[in-house]
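Is this the right way to post structure tokens for a design question? Let me know if I should format differently. Anyway, here goes:
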């Protein structure tokens, strides 16, 4: 899938001389900054290649992966003259577009609310197989709701200094390895990862054009605020509001009367049943006001976008 870059990687002239003196084969991969003028990119590449691999802790490995991939991608986004866009990053957090609720990938890279790249990291090289497996086991059944026509997600597994790019096809939670294993333990290995990473950026950029321009809340997704949540289920939504001094009993009675008065309207979202009090399963003494709401109305009045759906349920 990945081929040698059509352009060489720029590095600061003095650093270039030292690299090729130590490994003449690198002339095929890098060139002096004076030949390209890409000073910002060259500085980032030198910082990534110059830093020796430390390992020993996942947070340290995460930082080194960031220097090899994410920081260079941010630079490319900033100076992309063709079709500039932005990327954001999550670490150790689930993502609404493609991961399971209680699973937290080590890295998610997101654009236009869709995750297009992810990674898993382990400290020991012996755990590479486990890292690759977790690329799939933490995924939900992602599809067109967020990803439009995108058919696969690129990703990586890292175990100690060993780095492996993979791909996850839509509908398949078994990662497929792309190319051979690379090493973050050598300068040549780090340059190889950067070179492939630049091609991954180009794939992400191309995939972005095939994402949906609007998104509907997927089933089971929960929208949270400080004291309330709305969970979107099949055919209805469940609203939960935590009782606080700002939510006295009289307001609960008033809201019950409101739902009762409008429950037979053909053009309103209304309660499927009377609201109820529900003690929290996680925190003792916390009680929630819970009501299930269904969107009864004529088909022409269905919300046409996520923003309309959200405004109707709050």
């Amino acid at each position: 899938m990945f081929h040698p870059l059509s352009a060489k990687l720029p590095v600061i002239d003095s650093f270039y001389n030292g690299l090729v003196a130590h490994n003449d084969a690198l002339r095929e991969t890098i060139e002096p900054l004076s030949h390209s003028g890409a000073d910002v990119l060259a500085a980032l590449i030198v910082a990534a290649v110059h830093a020796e691999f430390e390992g020993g802790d996942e947070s340290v490995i995460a930082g080194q992966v960031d220097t090899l991939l994410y920081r260079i991608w941010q630079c490319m986004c900033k100076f992309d003259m063709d079709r500039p866009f932005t990327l954001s990053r999550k670490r150790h957090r689930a993502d609404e577009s493609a991961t399971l609720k209680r699973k937290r990938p080590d890295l998610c890279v997101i654009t236009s609310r869709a995750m297009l790249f992810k990674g898993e990291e382990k400290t020991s090289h012996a755990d590479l197989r486990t890292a690759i497996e977790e690329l799939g086991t933490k995924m939900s059944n992602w599809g067109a709701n967020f990803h439009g026509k995108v058919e696969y997600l690129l990703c990586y597994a890292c175990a100690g200094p060993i780095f492996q790019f993979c791909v996850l096809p839509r509908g398949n939670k078994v990662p497929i390895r792309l190319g051979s294993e690379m090493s973050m333990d050598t300068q040549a290995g780090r340059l190889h990862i950067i070179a492939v990473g630049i091609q991954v950026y180009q794939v992400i950029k191309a995939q972005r054009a095939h994402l949906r321009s609007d998104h509907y809340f997927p089933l089971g997704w929960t929208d949270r605020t400080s004291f309330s949540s709305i969970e979107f289920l099949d055919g209805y939504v469940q609203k939960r509001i935590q009782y606080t001094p700002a939510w006295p009993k009289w307001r609960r009675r008033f809201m019950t009367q409101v739902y009762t008065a409008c429950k037979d309207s053909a053009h309103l979202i209304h309660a499927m049943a009377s609201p109820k009090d529900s003690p929290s399963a996680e925190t003792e003494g916390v009680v929630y006001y819970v009501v299930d709401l269904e969107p009864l109305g004529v088909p022409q009045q269905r919300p046409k976008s996520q923003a309309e759906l959200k405004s109707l349920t709050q």
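Format looks fine. Someone answered above. Worth noting: The longest helix spans residues 187-208. The chain has a mean pLDDT of 83.
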